[in-house]
Amino acid sequence: MKGARAAKRYASALIDIAREMKRTDEVAADMHMIHDWVKSSYDLKLFFESPIIDRDKKRKTIEALFRGRVSELTEHFLFLLIDKGRETLTDSVAVEFAVLHDQLLGIVNADLKAAYQFDEADESLVLSKLEEVTGKKVRSSFSIEKTLVGGFMAQIGDTVYDGSVRRQLEILKQQLVSEL
What we know:
By secondary structure, the chain is α+β, with helices and mostly antiparallel strands. The protein folds into two domains: about 5-105, N-terminal domain of the delta subunit of the F1F0-ATP synthase (Peroxidase, domain 1), CATH 1.10.520; about 105-180, no CATH class. It contains eight helices and four strands, in the order H-H-H-H-H-H-E-H-E-E-E-H. The protein has helices at about 5-20, 25-40, 40-50, 55-65, 70-85, 90-105, 120-135, 165-180, and strands at about 105-115, 135-145, 150-155, 160-165. It has a four-stranded mixed β-sheet with strand order 2-1-3-4. Helix 7 (about 120-135) links the parallel strand 1 and strand 2 (about 135-145). Helix 2 (about 25-40) crosses helix 3 (about 40-50). The longest helix is centred in the first third of the chain and has 17 residues, at about 5-20. The chain is elongated. It starts with a helix and ends with a helix.
C-alpha cells in the first residue's frame, strides 16, 4: 500500500484525538463511509490523487461532499490532509483507522474457508472456538474452498488455524509413523 507508514501515523493520531474526545465510534463510522465512497467512486479516488486540483478547490469539494455527513472532527482531519498535501492517503488512513479501532475494541477479523457452506450452528461453534483461542471477539468472512475435502481453515492475521480433513489425516499419519 502506497504511503502505508504515513497512513498509519495519521490514523494513529486521529484515533488518539477521537479517544480523547470520546468519539471513536463516530469517527470510525465516518472513516468507514469515506472508504466505501472512495472504493465505489473512481472519480472520488482520482479527485484525492490529482495533483492538478488546487487545495482550495479540494477543501470546498470536501466541504460540499461531507459537511453534515461526517463529524466536525473528521471534516477537519480531511482538511488537515489536504493542507499537508497528503490527501492521497485518505483511503489508506480510513483503512488503517478501522484496524486500530478494531484493536481498541478487541476485535479480530477471521477469513474462514470450508468445503461447504456452514449452517448457523457450525459457524457459531467455530467462531466461539476462535474467540476462546484468541481471547478476542471474532468478525468473520466466509468463503467456500473447493480444494478442501472437509473441515475448515481460518486465518486471523498471519496465523492459520487448519481444521481441515487433510490436516487431520497428516497428524494421524505422523502419529502412526512415530509409533512404529
